[in-house]
Amino acid sequence: MTFSVLEYLSMLLSVVSIAIAITSLYLTYRRAYVTRLTKLSNRNIYGSRRYKRVKRYILFRFVCFDETHVSEFSKRVTSHIYAFLGPLIKTRCGISMVTVRSDLGRGIIRVSGDSECVKYVLTAMSLRHVVDGIPCLVIPLRTSGLVSRLRRYLRT
Amino acid sequence: MPLLRVDLLTLLDNCKHVLAFLQNLDIDVLGIPDHILNQCCEVIITKSKNTVIIPRAIFESSQNRLLPKMFELKTRLYTCIPRDLATARSLAKLSGVYTIALRADTVRLIDENEINLLTQVKVRKFIEVHLYSFIELLKHEDKRISLERLLHFLGETIERALRRDVPVIVSSASPRLDQTLHPNQMDVLLFLLGFTKRERRMMLEVYPMELLSTWREWR
Predict the structure, then answer these.
(1) Which fold does the domain B6-218 belong to in CATH?
(2) Assembly ipTM
(3) How far apart are CA B206 and CA B219, in angstroms?
(4) Whole-model pTM?
(5) Which of A123, A137, A153 best tests the B interface by mutation, with the highest count of B CBs <10 A?
(6) Architecture (CATH level 2) of domain A54-155
């Protein structure tokens, strides 16, 4: 079986074209991979937010079963809630007292931070009295994103 | 938060505490122990005009004695605490209107097989969750008991029961006034366990009312 010069040349050309195609495919893939890696590393460098910061207002009611005065207790509510939640959640969730009506035994608390914070704060309000032994219940009544919707419950 | 505030079981041990509970917390339906109700019936009735009072009692079921006598079952609404697996299975099959207590110490007895049994019986049986028995573990520093694990079991059991249409009631079952749980607080705890609004309404409002109507008709 003998090959002519033209046949040799055509075989050589086809081998070269296949090699060029493989190399170009490899280079394209590598370029795409590097671009993706750069995007990922940039995201880590610039620290994009992984959660949306939200704020919620919680209307609650105090009920004290002993001589503890509601006005005195209301000043310490936030510290009690923080003590229940612990320092780890304190870094994620902010709590502040918006208003308290001692005569009605009601108040509004503002919770800001991760969307899970409302759940944590509501739980802390509900279970705090079992753990710290202070005989005052904090009963959550309503949760809203607008404080104006809750203020009407504080009017006499 | 629930529109109808129902707590079908409080274990307060004197009249003074029951009165303080009724005066301070707006409750629509309250279950109190039968012996307390007998002690201060008149005072409670005068002070609680807007509250429905249900006589309750706890019975510890064992293989020797599974249920109280029939006339006792008809005069007060019993919650039965099974002491072993065989008792729990027997309680699912017996006739009569009572609830099966789901507490921290009985959570392992009321498993998937028990729920399957409860779906097969003719007389609808109710599971009653005593929340305080789980919550009081927050105070103990016993490393052998994992509260997370118990709450996980509790959530699994409730979810399984609701999916099979076995009624579940949630009550505080708190023995102390200063550590009691308001229905709104129970709602928050169920929210923490991951139940939807519909499921919470079912457990806190619909099923308790169904239990009361079933008990009333059965009497």
Answers:
(1) TIM Barrel (3.20.20)
(2) 0.87
(3) 20
(4) 0.82
(5) A137
(6) 2-Layer Sandwich (3.30)
